[in-house]
DNA sequence: TTGAAAGCGCTAACAC
DNA sequence: GTGTTAGCGCTTTCAA
């Protein structure tokens, strides 16, 4: 069970370390005889290079830039920032520097400006949260032109030029919500699907979730739910929802396609005798408050913190240890209720 | 943003690398003046040692032994083995050798025998799956006496001498199941709690889950479920359950505290008009089959594969990079239905 | 085509 | 007390 090093191989083959290295990396300039001998030896002993040593040699400092919506403007993004910060700490001692940049999630100009700055820095990789689809495509092209690796989280779209994507299957996510809804409301009732602030956000997300949700329910054999979709602005939510709920039995379940589900729960809370079930997204403190008192029945955890952290991890291990980066990593769609949320929130 | 090395510090402080190292590791034999100067400098520039270099120096081969129930005897343990095997592959190139040993989960002698063999090998750490509690306590003492690190997964008990534990909060796990059950069966019905093969397994697990389950339901304000507990052997299951189910409306929900929930689902499937809800544990193929056709309503994922993998990861990063090992790592309690299982099964 | 040698950053033994 | 030095395993340059 001895650990063989290049030196061992060299001695066994009667050549120098340099030659072994040339064989290992197929750098040519090796005689047929030596090639043959070393190759066989390598196979025989199942040589595994010491990745630590290899990495040490490569003393380059790697540089990753992260482009995210500013959490001070939309706190939804705070978990992503937290995930990135964890990664910063973890990889600092490994010679990987990570810089965070924030844009205004309602302002494409700020997005462009930041990417321009980053381009000039020529980092080794950039992680972007592409909430502006069209604009992202453009920016990614520029990064690719300079051979800068581009990673994304959170975006379900096929973006060309992306090296790796970490996220969730959003259609499936809608199906998960639908199955849950099916289980907790009586057959044949009416379900409301609410998209909140669609114009200001990446509406593709909401549409895919809706698609999955409908798709699941429409194919059911023995029940026949009525589905109503509303795309609303926060400002209009109160009036609209109040109107609907004052008409009793009109709605039995509400599926909110975003993390703003607490604002729906807050209104529904005023109708305690209606027993309306609510399913939505993300473990915001506000959402968990309603989850705890059963005003929200289920939350689906998109795990933005882990998405961001994992994405950087993949890049770091690629730089340090040449570990292959999976092109797409789909995280599980966590179902969260009042009893298991803290397993997902605390770390 | 320069990366400072020991050499840099030495030059800045006007001392040698050796002295800096002595300060860093508090090895004494440093004059007050030098100590003061170097210490301040280190703080000033927030020196971070290069962990790769440090690790390379330490060329020792670490050795971890894993003691698990034989998956050929009880396939429940296969995921753990898979997790360990993943870790073996991953850390092979980092100078960490991991050996797997299997005991018969129904034979304490085999457990002792294997631990005896391992003790003689004097590994750096051992990961045991302590399904025999009393016996494990004994064995752990012996490891501790030889300064061998002991890690465990899957066991909720306070075992003294354990360095780290990776697992789940089993009482909370029962509460999760209870909350789910509450949502999917009508109020005030009867719920059956089934422990399968309790004598042959670690019954503590089942008891804790039951405790959490009951605890949740008993404190509900507006409903009043009747709870019945059965501890059964596989062989008796069919007769007992048939008896119960032939008495209509006797049972509305069944909570199975182990992964053998499929064997309950199989029997309940013969009573299609009863609409009995079933909740159980673990993503065995057999369970997923019933989950898919809604015969099982929810499974709780204990994620044995990840438990094992994570545990070894923690040990490896401790050996390689001196990363602190958390004494206890509680994994989230994943709720799984027919729509999100594949996020947890495929990797 | 090949071997020798330097060096990545850190540690520790050894000489002064 | 302190500085020097060798060396961890691998890569790469340079001279032969």
TrEMBL record, chains A, B:
<dbReference type="InterPro" id="IPR001387">
    <property type="entry name" value="Cro/C1-type_HTH"/>
</dbReference>
<keyword id="KW-0804">Transcription</keyword>
<keyword id="KW-0238">DNA-binding</keyword>
<dbReference type="InterPro" id="IPR028082">
    <property type="entry name" value="Peripla_BP_I"/>
</dbReference>
<protein>
    <submittedName>
        <fullName>Substrate-binding domain-containing protein</fullName>
    </submittedName>
</protein>
<dbReference type="InterPro" id="IPR010982">
    <property type="entry name" value="Lambda_DNA-bd_dom_sf"/>
</dbReference>
<dbReference type="Pfam" id="PF13407">
    <property type="entry name" value="Peripla_BP_4"/>
</dbReference>
<dbReference type="InterPro" id="IPR025997">
    <property type="entry name" value="SBP_2_dom"/>
</dbReference>
<keyword id="KW-0805">Transcription regulation</keyword>
<feature type="domain" description="HTH cro/C1-type">
    <location>
        <begin position="2"/>
        <end position="48"/>
    </location>
</feature>
<feature type="domain" description="HTH lacI-type">
    <location>
        <begin position="4"/>
        <end position="58"/>
    </location>
</feature>
<dbReference type="Pfam" id="PF00356">
    <property type="entry name" value="LacI"/>
</dbReference>
<dbReference type="InterPro" id="IPR000843">
    <property type="entry name" value="HTH_LacI"/>
</dbReference>
């Amino acid at each position: 069970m001895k650990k063989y090093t290049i030196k061992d191989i060299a001695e066994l083959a009667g050549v120098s370390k340099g030659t072994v290295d040339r064989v290992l990396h197929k750098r040519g300039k090796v005689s047929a005889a030596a090639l043959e001998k070393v190759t066989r030896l390598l196979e025989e002993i199942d040589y595994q290079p010491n990745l630590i040593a290899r990495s040490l040699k490569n003393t380059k400092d790697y540089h990753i830039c992260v482009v995210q919506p500013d959490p001070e403007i939309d706190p939804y993004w705070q978990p992503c920032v937290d995930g990135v910060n964890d990664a910063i700490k973890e990889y600092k001692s490994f010679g990987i520097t990570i810089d965070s940049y924030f844009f205004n999630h309602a302002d494409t100009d700020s997005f462009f400006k930041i990417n321009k700055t980053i381009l000039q820095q020529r980092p080794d990789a950039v992680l972007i949260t592409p909430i502006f689809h069209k604009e992202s495509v453009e920016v990614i092209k520029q990064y690719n032109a300079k051979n800068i690796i581009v990673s994304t989280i959170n975006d379900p779209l096929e973006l060309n030029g992306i090296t790796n994507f970490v996220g969730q299957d959003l259609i499936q996510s809608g199906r998960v919500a639908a199955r849950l809804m099916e289980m907790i409301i009586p057959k044949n009732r009416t379900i409301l699907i609410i998209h909140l602030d669609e114009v200001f956000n990446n509406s593709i997300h909401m549409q895919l979730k809706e698609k999955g949700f409908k798709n699941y329910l429409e194919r059911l054999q023995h029940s026949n739910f009525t589905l109503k979709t509303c795309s609303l602005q926060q400002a209009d939510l109160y009036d609209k929802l109040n109107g609907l709920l004052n008409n009793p039995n009109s709605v039995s379940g509400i599926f909110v396609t975003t993390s703003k589900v607490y604002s729906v729960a807050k209104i529904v809370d005023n109708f305690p005798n209606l027993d309306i079930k609510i399913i939505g997204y993300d473990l915001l403190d506000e959402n968990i408050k309603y989850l705890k008192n059963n005003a929200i029945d289920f939350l689906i955890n998109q795990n933005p913190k882990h998405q961001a952290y994992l994405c950087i991890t993949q890049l770091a291990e690629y730089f340090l240890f040449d570990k292959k980066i999976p092109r797409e990593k789909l995280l599980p769609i966590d179902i969260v209720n009042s009893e298991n949320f803290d397993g997902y929130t605390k770390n």
